[in-house]
Amino acid sequence: MVIALAVVLFLNAAFNVLVWPRFYKRVATDPRARDADGKATAFLKVHAVLIAIALVLALVSVIVGIAALAGAL
Question: What's the rounded Cα separation, in Å, for the pair 19 and 22?
Answer without folding.
Answer: 6
